[in-house]
Amino acid sequence: MLDTLGETKAPSARQLTVLWFVPLSAPLMIGVALSLLAMFAHYPPPAELLSRETLWGVSLAAMALVLLVGRRLRNLVMAPERIAHRPLPGSAESSRDIKTQAASKVQHSMFILLGLLNFVSVLVVAACFMHADAELALLNGVYTLVLAVVTKPDFALAMRETEAVLRRQG
Q1: What digits encode the pLDDT tens for the residues 143-157?
Q2: Residue 11 near residue 103 (C-beta atoms within 8 A)
Q3: What are the two backbone dihedrals, phi and then psi, of residue 56, each rounded to the nearest 5 degrees?
Q4: Residue pLDDT, tens place only, 84-112
Q5: Would 94 be classed as within a structural domain?
Q6: How far apart are alpha carbons 50 and 27 in whole angstroms?
Q7: What's the domain range around 111?
Q8: Is 6 part of a structural domain of the chain?
Q9: Overall domain count for the chain
């Protein structure tokens, strides 16, 4: 995050929460857009790669699997020790204070987790566009919002614990 003087400042837990929900709400917006496109513009399926039953079965199984392992994945990626040891790309960590460094590392880890959690949703969205399946796209959007709520890290706690680990490391 940049302040008015152009210097970097530590992101707050509230900012990280907003950044958490924005990308994970995108599949619902895409699902609504696809359903409107199918309803009003009569969007035809460009290519049907699988039967409708297979598409739904594979998609629901993938969504259920990510929902089941989401918290474990969050605990793995967002563990304070792992966050503290993870290097920040393109930064001089020695010049930053510990609090800013901890917040930046938590933000970086959050984006790694977002990418991992959003992977299945993006694949399902692509399949929905290929099959013009608005119902599955809407279901995928709702699933992704549920996933966002279930797997949301406690950013304030993560920043405090990462800061403590960084202080112990010296």
Answers
A1: 999 999 999 999 999
A2: yes
A3: -65, -45
A4: 999 888 766 555 688 989 999 999 999 99
A5: yes
A6: 21
A7: 13-38+52-169
A8: no
A9: 1
